[in-house]
Specification:
This protein is of the alpha+beta class. The protein has 4 helices and 5 strands, in the order H-H-E-E-E-E-E-H-H.
């Protein structure tokens, strides 16, 4: 294990591969208590309204990040779905080349 941990290029290639090709498209969680999910960056919907929290999509499911249109609170027991692929390809997080595999060039060793 120590030998594997000493391979920084392998670690970077595996992490980048999992970012571009995640093993699952989304993951879900169940809310353990009532609350509101604030957004770090406000989202403007198609009608020009700015929202700072997550909206309710249907009585049981909420969508994070890209499916935010109306502010609302999350109730205990509701499912929160996190879309991994859109988050991993978000240009505001990963930069303009977010949809491309970034080759390992140098880590300064």
């Amino acid at each position: 294990m120590d030998q594997l941990n000493a391979l920084p290029y392998l670690d970077m290639v595996v992490r980048e591969t999992l970012r571009v090709h995640p093993p699952v498209p989304a993951t879900g969680r169940v809310s353990m208590r009532d609350g509101v999910l604030p957004l770090s960056n406000p989202v403007t919907d198609r009608k020009g309204r700015v929202h700072h929290t997550i909206r309710k999509v249907n009585p049981q499911i909420f969508y994070l990040v890209y499916h935010v249109f109306y502010p609302n609170s999350i109730k205990k027991g509701q499912i929160v779905q996190i879309p991994i692929i859109p988050v991993n390809m978000d240009k505001s997080i990963w930069g303009g080349d977010a949809d491309e595999f970034r080759q390992v060039i140098s880590i300064g060793c």
